[in-house]
UniProtKB/TrEMBL annotation:
It comes from the Eukaryota. This is Putative oxidoreductase. Signal peptide: none annotated. Belongs to the short-chain dehydrogenases/reductases (SDR) family. InterPro entries: NAD(P)-bd_dom_sf, SDR_fam. It comes from Lupinus albus (White lupine).
Length: 260
């Protein structure tokens, strides 16, 4: 029987009702974790929980833009399971593609509030819980290949994901004293509901485009691959990895893609 890599560990996953978050819920559950599925998509979140069919996976509404909701979600998790070992701060929004010359600052504020401020709130309150319980936990944030280079996503999204990498490094610098690891994952283009809606494309169209632009050929990047990266960082296999941005992009962000 395969070893369950998160046996008995408590995980809070935001943005967990679909896409990368949903895949991570399923993979963490398979590996023995107790999970709080947090999202604003209540119906989808409840469907994820019902489809897994385990008392070890429960849903809780949380809009990460509202710090009070974040704090209440942490409280809910502690009341249910007693402590938190893993935070996967995955909630995020993409925004629309537009010229920097037509930059929508209202949309920018909402993206920053969700992608950066929301992550900061979840890290703040999850880390408080870990410190109080003396848990040497793992905090993981979903960033993007757009956190590594420009031109790989909408401008506001790119700015937010660069900021999120900075947040991870800042949190790592302090929380290491408590034995808490803080890392991020930067995926290349994945056909999630978020990306399909933002790009107004069908899943196969997103995958076709990503594959055409990819450096690493012969592999179609799926949400499950990002979930596997999160499982590694959450597990004791990554016990001495902190402050790291794990880029899952097949080399896209580090090679010269000019045509010769």
């Amino acid at each position: 029987m395969q070893k369950q890599r998160l046996e008995g560990k408590v995980a809070l996953i935001t943005g967990a009702a679909s896409g990368i978050g949903e895949e991570t819920v399923r993979l963490f559950a398979e590996n023995g974790a107790l999970i709080v599925v947090a999202d604003v998509q209540d119906e989808l979140g409840e469907q994820v929980v019902a489809s897994i069919g385990s008392e070890k996976v429960i849903y809780h509404h949380c809009d990460v833009r509202d710090e009070k909701q974040v704090e209440e979600t942490i409280k809910f998790t502690l009341e249910k399971y007693g402590h938190i070992d893993i935070l996967f701060s995955n909630a995020g929004i993409l925004g629309t593609l537009s010229s920097i010359l037509e930059f929508d600052l209202d949309e920018f504020d909402n993206i920053i509030s969700t992608n950066v401020r929301g992550a900061a709130a979840t890290i703040k309150h999850a880390a408080r819980a870990m410190v109080a319980k003396k848990i040497q936990g793992s905090i993981i944030c979903t960033t993007s290949v757009a956190a590594c280079i420009g031109g790989a996503g909408p401008h506001a999204y790119t700015i937010s994901k660069h900021g999120l990498v900075g947040l991870v490094k800042a949190a790592c610098s302090e929380l290491g004293a408590y034995g808490i690891r803080v890392n991020s994952i930067s995926p290349y283009g994945v056909a999630t509901p978020l990306s399909c809606k933002g790009l107004n494309l069908e899943p196969h169209e997103v995958e076709d485009y990503s594959c055409s632009e990819a450096n690493l050929k012969g592999v179609v990047l799926k949400a499950k691959h990002i979930a596997e990266a999160a499982l590694f960082l959450a597990s004791d296999e990554a016990i001495y990895i902190s402050g790291h941005n794990l880029v899952v992009d097949g080399g896209f962000s580090v090679v010269n893609r000019s045509k010769y």
